[in-house]
Amino acid sequence: MPGRPGSPGLLRSVFRRHAAGVAVITARGEAGPVGFTATSLTSVSADPPLVSFGVGTGASSWPAILGTDHIGVHILGEHQEELAATFARSGADRFGPPTVWREGPEGVPVLDGVLAWLVCRITGRVPAGDHRIVIAEVVHGDPVSAGRPLLYHQGRFTALRD
């Protein structure tokens, strides 16, 4: 069975079938806080504690990610579908009401009400097609609350089923 030739459409079609956890990445930009929804968050190493995520070089948040040393990583709960949608929506006022946030360690915007958050120091930005894979070392964090994670599957936000 030869399958279909590799293409952006094939990749999107296959990954619609892959369930992923939902995170919001934040940073302090020159004009204020920036952030975006990410489903590419990965734990890379325990020692040192490293994470990675992808960001498009055409994304509005990319200049801030390129120009900063620290980023925030927020694991969203199943109750935060609207927050995920806000940070995924182009042109949205991501840090205006109803988003609740504060300045955290290293000046990074930290979102309230998330399952957990980390502040990380960027150690690398690796070119990968129209994206960069950002590698960052954990320097602060808190597994804030218990709860179930928000997932992304088949092009929509969803939750775990028992």
TrEMBL record:
<dbReference type="GO" id="GO:0006208">
    <property type="term" value="P:pyrimidine nucleobase catabolic process"/>
</dbReference>
<dbReference type="InterPro" id="IPR050268">
    <property type="entry name" value="NADH-dep_flavin_reductase"/>
</dbReference>
<dbReference type="GO" id="GO:0042602">
    <property type="term" value="F:riboflavin reductase (NADPH) activity"/>
</dbReference>
<feature type="domain" description="Flavin reductase like">
    <location>
        <begin position="15"/>
        <end position="159"/>
    </location>
</feature>
<dbReference type="Pfam" id="PF01613">
    <property type="entry name" value="Flavin_Reduct"/>
</dbReference>
<protein>
    <submittedName>
        <fullName>Flavin reductase family protein</fullName>
    </submittedName>
</protein>
<dbReference type="InterPro" id="IPR002563">
    <property type="entry name" value="Flavin_Rdtase-like_dom"/>
</dbReference>
<dbReference type="InterPro" id="IPR012349">
    <property type="entry name" value="Split_barrel_FMN-bd"/>
</dbReference>
<dbReference type="GO" id="GO:0010181">
    <property type="term" value="F:FMN binding"/>
</dbReference>
<keyword id="KW-0560">Oxidoreductase</keyword>
